[in-house]
Amino acid sequence: MSxxxxxxxxxxxxxxxxxxxxxxxxxxxxxxPPITRASTILFPEAKGMENPTQKYTYGTRGTPTTDxxxxxxxALEGSAGTILLPSGLAAITIxxxxxxxxxxxxxxxxxxxxxxxxxxxxxxxxxxxEVEYFDPALGEGIERLMRSNTRLVHLEAPGSNxxxxxxxxxxxxxxxxxxxxxxxxxxxxxxLYFKPLDHGVDISMHAATKYPSGHSDILMGTVSANAxxxxxxKQANGALGLCGSPDDSYMILRGLRTMAxxxxxxxxSARAIAAWLEGRDDVARVLHPALESFPGHALWKRDFKGxxxxxxxxxxxxxxxxxxxxxxxxxxxxxLFGLGWSWGGYESLAVLVNLSDRTICKAPExxxxxxxxxxxxxxxxxxxxxxxxxxxxxxxx
Length: 397
Prior knowledge:
CATH architecture of the largest domain: 3-Layer(aba) Sandwich
CATH class of the largest domain: Alpha Beta
Number of domains: 2
Structural class: alpha/beta
């Protein structure tokens, strides 16, 4: 196994994804790790139960299947340890609970995932933790927001729905000077296109529901920590009793094997469609970091190896009173695109974005924001469907 790890560490992304997380010859040569379900795990003698030395003690603490996935994620993230959770939202909330206490101050990027904002504004505030939102473009300017009780800085690059970039390394350096832990939601890029821990982040969170699953049928979150923060994260999660199931872990491992191929397809198609949208008169703006016209493009180009398949555009509308009607007309005319939450699966999806909860990064005033998840369909068919949406909007005039 050690010889395999040696050559695998130097291999390309697709090669690594094909082989990470399992040694077939550790289990009769079977290519995929078997699904090991467990709640009760037996001990050979009573003494062993008092100070357990055996690897597995109870189902919530891991099984060979969940460990295989954790090993694969650790190899991708460069982390000291990974926990598996039932959802992407849980992957954000557990580190917050692990590293924040009553009286602490937390800085949260204003373009944060909506349900994470809801958790901050309800659960954290109820725990007497002060939450302050900041402009994602702040960079080193975040220094002026740091306080003596600032314990956590949370990043998401690019931001949810409007895709603002952040200078992750600069913000992490400032946070560390003030002894704050840095967490980051890296779902959009995955560790294939951006490795947060290499840029100063302490804890990388991921909704494995998205690209690692790839098929819109599994809910799971992963949280990966560096060595300095791993033990505290693991202990907090153990106290809360949350875990990912072996069956879901098996399916995420299966999805990982093709993630590089799928991500490349998502990226290529999304960039082509974003460029096509940018050339339309009925589009006010396209919010995609890989476009040179996007304000955060330089940061994306400097730090990221690729782009995800999800981005937004602003549908041109002269009057705010028209925003919702035009957005709904566009979406209702679509046939290939599904109307549904989430993303990262094989199918294209579209939603009308609600940005009413923002405090700093306000909603665009030149039209409604429509978020597109570009799936694995042919680009020509996706564009033809979008044309249906634009035609429906034009028919309203």
